[in-house]
Automatic annotation (TrEMBL):
Keywords of this entry: Ribonucleoprotein, Ribosomal protein
Organism: Cudoniella acicularis
Superkingdom of origin: Eukaryota
Molecular-function GO term, any one: structural constituent of ribosome
Name of this protein: Ribosomal protein S12
Amino acid sequence: MMATSVLRRFLMPSVRMPISASATKTVLGPQSIRRNFSATPTSFATYNQVAKGCRGSQRARKAVSPALRDVNAPELKGVCLKVGITSPKKPNSGQRKTARVRLRGRSQDCPGVRYHLVRGAMDLGGVGNRVTSRSKYGTKKPKKAAA
């Protein structure tokens, strides 16, 4: 009787009411209720999957910006030591603009794709002779020629 009333509350939206914690624990455990209404059954690893190493620990995620990870300061101020262009490792290709930056605390890092530098701020200069989209490239507004 108790089990049918619990199921009726789940299945009929018009009668859906909160279930008291004591009624749930006596009839069915919370884990079994969740599994009864799941679309996919629980699956265990097969012998071949275990042999291939499915139970090994997962790889740690690669940090987006390793030098800035520990200090919790994504906009950390630094000094540009060197600006240049490098090409990425295989199989990627292209010209990647890089800057060697000395961050606070004398930790040095070479920002590549994973860092964003603000052009025209601090000692990193803006793009010269820029007319459109100047704010993105840190270029000052050109002065009007005296007539």
